[in-house]
Amino acid sequence: MEDDHYCVQVGGVEAYRWVKAKLEEYYKAEPGEAHFERVYHALHELAAMKLHDGAVAKYRPVLHPFLRPEHTLTNDALSAAARTMLRAIYKIVSMSSATPKRSLAPLTAFIEGLQLNAVPRIYTTNYDDLFSQAFPGFFTGFTHKKDGYSLFSPRDYWTKWESPGLFHLHGSVHFGFPLGQPKRDPDVGIGDLAWYDNKEEAIKHAHGGGSGRSRLDGTQVETSAIITGLDKLGRLQQSPFLSYYGGLTREVNEADLIVVLGSGLGDLHLNTCILQARRGKLPTPIVYVGWWKKDDLREAITWEPSDQAVAMVQDLRIDLSRDGQMQYDVYPGWSINTDSRAAVYAGGFYKFLEDPTTYSKVLEKIGA
Predict the structure, then answer these.
(1) Which of 54, 64, 95, 119 is deepest in the core (most CB within 10 A)?
(2) CA distance 366 to 368
């Protein structure tokens, strides 16, 4: 943040440090809970609750008369810190995408294997482009080619249903705003996102500037090419995210197989989509790839289950009860519940990719 002159000038660095310190004290029993999404959420919501003098009624935050700020930070400082966090996250992920820490060959082989029997439709919450590096040419819905970028086409997204697709539900290092073009493009609406093939060019246009997007409670959401914080659902009312989220709901209900890779299941709005397909007498087969100590799912079964374990039971409908039907360690790292047509791999994403033979055997056992 110290590199951002405006953020330093208006007190954004102090605002960030104050919020982070407050959260670390609040979560002192578990310091890791004061993570970047909570810091960003606190900064944004605190800024939203500051009343702007002279604002007309509809732009006055609904909760303001009930919540009195107990700090002296200015709205500019809080907003600058939040914006700078978004810029930093985007830049870090973009740079790390350029140099993957591990070979992408196993991921390429996994996607190619999916294509042999199905049409892979991948919805990711990651901002990086490792999937598109491993398998170039995915359909994204950004089909309207322009000079240097592509615009999203809702019509193409909804009609090209049988194409291998990759959809970034929370933004991408290839997303940016088509602003600053030599001539104003009539096809570009305010707040529209574009796809830049060149990540370095995308960084230049990753932040919309100007005012944010209005919410019904009188506050605003910062415009950005990525979505973070604890209010992701409220930020999905923007293209292409609105189409992606609606499409995911359809995808999981029409899918022959759902594979959840490396998710901690913390995005409750996405869990709700999967739940729809996992209800009923014959739920859609599901494979969940996570990581537990000793590559053993039984590490998740405790008297105080984690949020992840609770979501596995309630949203993914994977039976982890002590007297349930889950068969543990059927294959190394694999637990299978054929009654609910579910399998869990506990050895992590990369080890999962390295053993496609066992994965094929697991699919047979859960009827996929």
Answers:
(1) 64
(2) 6
48 within 8 A of 220, measured Cβ to Cβ = yes
| pTM summary value | 0.89
pLDDT at 323: 72
User: What is the 3-state secondary structure of 128-165?
Assistant: CCHHHHHCCCCECCCCEECCCCEECCHHHHHHCCCCCE
Residue 302, pLDDT score: 75
What is residue 10's three-state secondary structure? Answer: coil
Report which secondary-structure segment, H or E, holds 122: strand 121-124
Look up the CATH number of domain 105-169+239-365: 3.40.50
Domain ranges of the chain: 5-99, 105-169+239-365
DSSP code, position 207: B
**C-alpha count within 13 angstroms, C-beta hemisphere, residue 173:** 22
51 HSE (CA, 13 A, CB side)? 14
pLDDT digits (tens, 9 = 90+) for 73-123: 888 899 899 999 999 999 999 999 999 999 999 999 999 999 998 999 999
Closest CA to 342 of 299, 283, 302, 294: 283
Phi and psi at residue 157, in whole multiples of 5°?
Answer: -60, -45
Tokens matching residue 154: 């809702």
Residues 15-20: contacts with CB within 8 Å, 24+ apart? 15/43, 15/73, 15/77, 15/78, 15/80, 15/81, 16/43, 16/81, 16/84, 16/85, 18/71, 18/73, 19/43, 19/46, 19/81
Q: What is the pLDDT of residue 272?
A: 93
Triad 349, 353, 359: Cα angle to 5°: 105
